[in-house]
UniProtKB/TrEMBL annotation:
Residues 1-26 form the signal peptide. It holds the Pfam family Sortase. This is Class B sortase. It comes from Gordonibacter pamelaeae. One of its GO terms (molecular function) is hydrolase activity. The lineage of its organism: Bacteria, Bacillati, Actinomycetota, Coriobacteriia, Eggerthellales. Keywords: Hydrolase, Signal.
Length: 249
């Protein structure tokens, strides 16, 4: 093989490598642009009117036509948390971590009620566990991480949750940061006393216990626990916000 032939082969290989690098860069750019342009609102902006009772007027017929898995809506004032809540499925528990309310792939995901709570639903489970992502763009449940600061919490409550048939204000009883590698959230209870004992215990042990002295934990039949990732101490940390339910008239 002469020097001229070797040079031609070298040039051809160099050109191929450059083309491959450009193709990879272009693909990466496209994927990045797609991810960054994904709307943090599960299906884009949806303006809803506020009713006399202070709750948003949700077009349930529309949202249920979009996805029958939609079971509720959450609004946390002043945080941008204003999203549908979907029901998780036991067949694919993490589906809504990376799909929006319209079942389209979306790294934002959408807040969802864990599948174990499907029977009681959002407002009638002994402990309805709702998870949402904590993302750098501040969407989904990211702002809930700030609830560890009681002054911030006070500025952004009460939390409102509604379903197609019911509405409720949530009163925060406690905020806790836990290592999810070592701790789990309890969802099932044998008796009402068992439930009350558990609730008193977790609030007392939480980083922020907001229940008043002498609070009657027996009066709280159902709890909503909001869960998101946080990043203060452990690599697998979660912020848990335990809430009592006050049904709206």
């Amino acid at each position: 093989m002469n020097d001229r032939t070797k040079s031609r082969i070298a040039l051809a290989l160099a050109a191929s490598l450059i083309s491959l690098a450009l193709a990879v860069s272009a693909s990466t750019l496209i994927l990045t642009e797609r991810a960054s342009s994904t709307s943090p609102d599960p299906l884009g902006t949806c303006e809803e009117a506020v009713q006399d009772d202070g709750f948003e007027s949700i077009d349930w017929d529309y949202w249920l036509s979009v996805n029958p898995d939609i079971i509720g809506w959450i609004n946390v004032p002043g945080t941008g948390i204003d999203y549908p809540i979907v029901q998780g499925n036991s067949g694919d528990p993490g589906y809504y971590l990376y799909h929006d309310a319209g079942k389209r792939w979306d790294y934002h995901g959408v807040p969802y009620l864990t599948w174990e709570c499907a029977e009681g639903g959002l407002l009638h489970s002994p402990n309805a566990l709702v998870f949402g992502h904590h993302l750098q763009d501040g969407t989904m449940f990211s702002k809930l991480g700030g609830f560890i600061d009681v002054a911030y919490l006070d500025e952004h409550t009460p939390i409102q949750i509604q379903t197609p048939t019911e509405k409720a204000n949530l009163t925060v009883l406690a905020v806790d940061r836990v290592n999810a590698s070592r701790e789990t959230v309890r969802l099932e209870f044998d008796t009402a006393l068992d439930h009350a004992t558990w609730l008193a215990s977790v609030t007392a042990a939480s980083d922020r216990n907001l229940s008043s002295a002498g609070f009657d934990f027996d009066s709280v039949e159902n709890v909503v626990t909001l869960c998101t990732c946080s990043y203060s101490t452990w690599g697998n940390e979660r912020t848990l916000i335990y809430c009592a339910i006050e049904m709206a008239d």
